[in-house]
Every structure is written in structure tokens, then in C-alpha cells.
Amino acid sequence: QVQLVESGGGLVQAGGSLRLSCAASGSIFSINTLGWYRQAPGKQREPVAVITSGGVTNYADSVKGRFTISRDNAKNTVFLQMNSLKPEDTAVYYCYAGVVATTYRLNDYWGQGTQVTVSS
């Protein structure tokens, strides 16, 4: 089984920065796509940033130029560097991983979420 452990959330003032980390552990053959999603109370979960195994990235329009996603394949870890934070960035952020198991089947895994609160 695979676990995703997130860290780095917290309270920050508008204009500040925060870095989220997510480490995958368990019986992993390989990790393909990694990403970050977020969900505010009463709203639908939305994608924030995605990075493929080849390093191709994609961002939501609302975070382009402010957020950067990266990965450390040796440590099975994905990061989200968040700069110039705005109050509308306030949400629970979830780590996503598309994992190839030793059975060669691709499964989706989600972290438990970490709270990011941006005050004004």
C-alpha cells in the first residue's frame, strides 16, 4: 500500500510565501503524475498544479506566475512553492499521486490534506 504525507501548511499573511511538501512511501514501483489540488469549504476540489514523470507542468490560471510545482524522484516527494499568496488561496491542499504498483496497475492516491490560510 502507498501513503502520502503532506506538510508545510499554516497561516500566512497576504503577499507571503509557503512551501508544501508531500512524500510518498510504501510498495511503489514507480510514480507517474504528481499534483496538488485544493478545496475550500462548500466548494468543489480543483486542480492547482500537476507535474508528469517527464517534468511537464500545468497550472491553474489563478496561480500561474505565483506557484511552482517540482519533484524529487529519488525521494518520491513533490513540492509546491507558493509565493504572493492571496486570501482566495485559502483552502485545504491535497497531494495527488498516480502510482504504478508492483502489479503494474496504475492507482490514484491522495493525501489527507493540509490547511493553508491566508489572512489580509
- In terms of DSSP E residues, the strand content is over 45%
Structural class: mainly beta
State the shape: elongated
The end-to-end span amounts to 41 Å
Helix-residue proportion:
under 10%
Which stretches are low in confidence, meaning pLDDT under 50 for 5 or more residues running? none
Radius of gyration computed on alpha carbons: 14 Å
Identify the quaternary structure here. single chain
Average pLDDT rating: 95
Please count the helical segments: 0
Total beta strand runs: 11
Major sheet description: 7 strands, mixed
Order of helices and strands: EEEEEEEEEEE
How are the SSEs ordered, and which strands pair?
Elements: E1 2-7, E2 10-13, E3 18-26, E4 30-39, E5 46-51, E6 57-59, E7 67-72, E8 77-82, E9 91-100, E10 106-110, E11 114-119
Parallel strand pairs: 2-11
Antiparallel strand pairs: 1-3, 3-8, 4-5, 4-9, 5-6, 7-8, 9-10, 9-11
Tell me about this structure.
There is one protein chain. The protein is 0% helix and 59% strand. The protein contains no helices and 11 strands. Strands 2, 4, 5, 6, 9, 10 and 11 form a 7-stranded mixed beta sheet that branches. Strands 1-3-8-7 form a 4-stranded antiparallel beta sheet, with no helix packed on it. The radius of gyration is 14 Å and the shape is elongated. The relative contact order is 0.33. The model has no long low-confidence stretch (mean pLDDT 95).
